[in-house]
Amino acid sequence: MSRGRRLLVETILLVVAAIVLAVILRTFLAEAFRIPSSSMEPQLNVGDRVIVSRTAYKLHDPRRGDVVVFDCPPAAGCTDPPKPNLLVRGVHTVMEAVLLREPQPEEYIKRVIGLPGETVEGRDGLVWINGKPLDEPYLPVGTRTSDFGPVVVEPERLWLMGDNRGNSSDSRVFGQVDQDTIVGRAILRVWPPWRTAFL
Fold first, then answer.
1. Where do the domains of the chain lie?
2. What is the pLDDT of residues 56-102, one digit of tens each?
3. Which of 61, 103, 181, 191 would disulfide-bridge 49, Cβ 3.0–4.6 Å?
């Protein structure tokens, strides 16, 4: 085999290996997620990219204050898009893994506010947990939360809210979220590079 042909084969093998590794990482460990709305401003703006850990909740339960990505709840009016054939799905998975294509299923990103068994309420511009006002240092000064509840969070469910309380479709709209619909925990903002930060 000539040197040029050997170099071509090695290059192709390296590219294929890189794509396979990207798919494995995206499927089992972590993936990039593009912020689709203003519901988490000012911490996360439209177009920001975050790294979402798929393993975080295999190690511990969700915690209050975590920022999570989850499947759009049925009560939010989401419908399952038609599924393409196996070959098309494979190509889409590869393209999503290397960030050449946006993921198609609708996913939301919000903050964990209420945990199973807790009573959550919006009153006097604040969130109350079990009758006590919740300290929310991640919100801009002067943020007011609309009145809701009280609501008792059911087992295996979470009460999720956006930081942009005046412009967020969250548990106040679509109710409690099943924990098994959580894709993962957002752990790092990576884009734009000058706003890189842990979440």
1. 32-86+105-198
2. 787 788 999 999 988 888 777 766 544 555 555 556 555 555 554 45
3. 191
Burial class (CB in 10 A: 0-12, 13-18, 19+), 169: middle
pTM (two decimals): 0.74
Catalytic residue IDs: 39, 110
Tokens of 55: 């393993």
Most distant CA pair in the chain: distance in Å? 77
Task: Please give the sequence-ordered ranges of beta strands (E in DSSP) within 37-80, or none if there are none.
Answer: 49-53, 67-71
Cβ proximity of 49 and 189 under 8 Å: yes
For residue 43, pLDDT over 80 is answered with: yes
**Peptide bond just before 150 cis, omega within 30 deg:** yes
Angle among Cα 32, 115, 197 to the nearest 5 degrees reads: 30
Which residue, 123, 112, 106, is CA-closest to 157?
112
Give residue for tokens 């511009």.
Answer: 125
The fold of the 32-86+105-198 domain, in CATH, is Umud Fragment, subunit A (2.10.109)
Q: Supply the pLDDT for residue 23.
A: 58
Q: How confident is the model at residue 192 (pLDDT cuts 50, 70, 90)?
A: confident
